[in-house]
Design goal:
By secondary structure, the chain is an alpha+beta fold. It has helices at residues 18-36, 46-53, 59-65, 110-119, 134-145, 149-156, 161-170, 177-185, 191-205, 208-221, 226-238, 242-255, 260-265, 268-271, 280-283, 290-299, 303-309, 313-322, 334-344, 347-359, 381-389, and strands spanning 8-14, 70-79, 82-91, 96-105. Helices cover 54% and strands 9% of the residues.
């Protein structure tokens, strides 16, 4: 039988609070993975689609941007303890609604919901039963998103090793890293498992070589994975290999045109290079990159343009610190406070904040060795000791 379309993107959007956000991401991931098993459909991976789902673009615009014939739009809303999911299958080429339905389900009924949605999409084929406990994963991710990774682990109870490892690593639970190692050893070395292993090795062990090996193995499995290229680019940059990092960041920026972080990373080669101010032209095009624009201007010594460009609380505080004026340090992160104090020439306070960021395993701490605004710290022995502790000396 001829299908009405040969390609489809799953667009899952929340229309409510935290619960709907978590379920929308879970649905988007699972449905895209299930549809990708069909030999009759081309299906973009969830990581490509997610930034579009978070944008203001219409389903038709997103479908054209992703070069697919159809979009399966899942709108997730909360109704008491249940979720209400409206599904619209849209033919982007003909701008026609192919199918639509609504479902009211509890978290326990998520697997049945996914099967029902897949039956609405021509060419989806038979969906294999999932071994992972979806209801528990949903509740665990909700607890994690609410800032309680320990509760998430209690909910999982060891039933989903990969999710357990992700919860420990992303939750930065140092005391339970051993559990994450064992969980990763018990699962197939797929892309996500290798990414988590790389994050564990870099974040908790300062084993940058081991992390790089894991990421390069992940790229062999999936050479087009934006998230793997982004992680490898960050790792190479953190370990002072800016030229080697640049192609990975540029590729991610090309693959993820509506993802702000990917676009900012496309300017990393300039910002972390010899002339940080060269990054300004690219960064200035991004509404989300104001802090980076000001950082680049100040690193290049252009205080006048930095002052006029500053449009966020942090960028204004950074300009004030750099100019020797009074500045605020709340509610900024330890990494941001380190930038503020370094810009102000307060070396001890800057290193104090960096040590806190490192103890928290903050993602931004990995760039300490190459951050141009940390130039005043280079001759500080405590800063050198911190870089050695991070494996970045």
């Amino acid at each position: 039988m001829r299908l009405p379309f040969d390609s489809v993107a799953v667009l899952s959007r929340p229309a409510g609070g935290l619960r709907t956000v978590v379920l929308a991401d879970l649905l988007g991931d699972d449905l895209a993975a299930a549809l990708a098993r069909s030999r009759r459909l081309r299906v973009p991976r969830a990581e490509f689609v997610r930034p579009y789902a978070r944008s203001e673009m219409s389903p038709e615009e997103i479908g054209r941007a992703l070069n697919v014939h159809a979009v399966a739009l899942c709108t997730v809303a909360a109704v008491g303890p249940c979720v209400d999911v409206a599904v619209d299958v849209i033919d982007v080429v003909r701008e026609k609604l192919v199918a639509n339905d609504k479902f009211l389900v509890s978290s326990r009924e998520v697997p049945a919901l996914e099967r029902a949605i897949l039956r609405m999409i021509p060419g989806a084929g038979r969906v294999p039963a999932k071994s992972a406990p979806l209801a528990e994963i949903l509740e665990a991710r909700l607890a994690r998103a609410a800032g309680d990774p320990e509760m998430a682990l209690e909910i999982l109870g060891g039933a989903a090793p990969l999710e357990t490892a992700a919860t420990i690593i992303e939750g930065r639970l140092c005391a339970r890293v051993g559990e994450a190692r064992r969980a990763l050893l018990s699962v197939r070395r797929g892309v996500r498992a290798l990414q988590l292993l790389a994050r564990l090795l870099a974040r908790f062990d300062a084993d940058w070589h081991g992390a790089e090996v894991a990421l390069r193995e992940a790229l062999k499995l999936d050479p087009g994975s934006p998230s793997t290229h982004a992680m490898l680019g960050d790792l190479l940059l953190a370990t002072r290999r800016c030229d080697a990092a640049a192609p990975h960041h540029r590729l991610v920026a090309e693959l993820m045109p509506v993802d702000a972080r990917s676009q900012i990373a496309g300017a990393f080669a300039d910002y972390f290079g010899a002339f940080p101010i060269d990054a300004v032209a690219r960064l200035a095009e991004l509404p989300e990159a104001n802090d980076w624009v000001v950082r680049a201007l100040l690193a290049g010594g252009d205080v006048l343009h930095a002052r006029s460009a500053a449009a966020t609380p942090f960028s204004r505080a950074l300009v004030a610190a750099f100019a020797g004026h009074e500045f605020v340090i709340a509610p900024f992160t330890a990494s941001e406070r380190a930038l503020l104090f370094s810009a102000a020439g307060a070396i001890d306070e800057a290193v104090d904040c960096l040590e806190i960021a490192a103890a928290e395993h903050a993602d931004e701490a990995i760039f300490a060795a190459v951050e141009p605004l940390f130039a005043p710290l280079q001759s500080e022995p405590r800063f050198s000791m911190l870089l050695r502790h991070l494996g970045l000396a």
